[in-house]
Design goal:
Strand order of the largest sheet: 1-2-3-6-5-4
Order of helices and strands: EHHEEEEE
Radius of gyration: 15 Å
Number of strands: 6
Shape: globular
Strand content: 25-35%
């Protein structure tokens, strides 16, 4: 197992160490009853996640925002699965692992602090992060930047 380090969050909510795309709300994914301000925050977080996932390419702010808004609105209409991401740095490479929160075996954002050393296992397009309780969080690698 390799030693990784929790990287900067892909979704800067209230606590920048959290790793859920909806970390700032503490309520989970946006709902149709959220205020316009809450929806704007969710869209902003998603746009920043897209920016990170796509290699932090500058100059695509509007494109990232439009994509984030479309994704959030589609999720509101469909009630789709709640997905989140975690960023881990291993040997200078930043991996973005996405996971389905319903299948995360009780994993909650904030189990790791930014910069904490954590055991990581990489297998193909999968990244397994060892949690403090000994269980592994299985993610699908959706981004990799050196």
């Amino acid at each position: 197992m390799e030693q990784g380090e929790l990287g900067r969050d892909v979704s800067p909510g209230v606590d920048r160490r959290e790793d859920s795309m909806y970390a700032g709300s503490r309520r989970g994914r946006p709902t149709a009853t959220d205020s316009p301000a809450e929806l704007q925050r969710a869209i902003r977080r998603r746009a920043e996640e897209i920016y990170e996932r796509n290699g932090r390419i500058r100059g695509r702010d509007v494109e990232n925002w439009m994509r984030a808004e479309a994704e959030i609105r589609r999720e509101l209409e469909e009630g789709g699965p709640r997905r989140a991401s975690i960023v881990v740095k291993v040997d200078g490479v930043r991996y973005v692992g996405e996971y389905n929160m319903a299948e995360a075996d009780g994993y909650t954002p904030g189990e790791f602090a930014s910069g904490d050393p954590i055991p990581v296992r990489l297998e193909g397009d999968r990244m397994y992060v060892k949690r403090p309780n000994g269980k592994e969080l299985e993610t699908t690698i959706v981004g990799k930047t050196e």
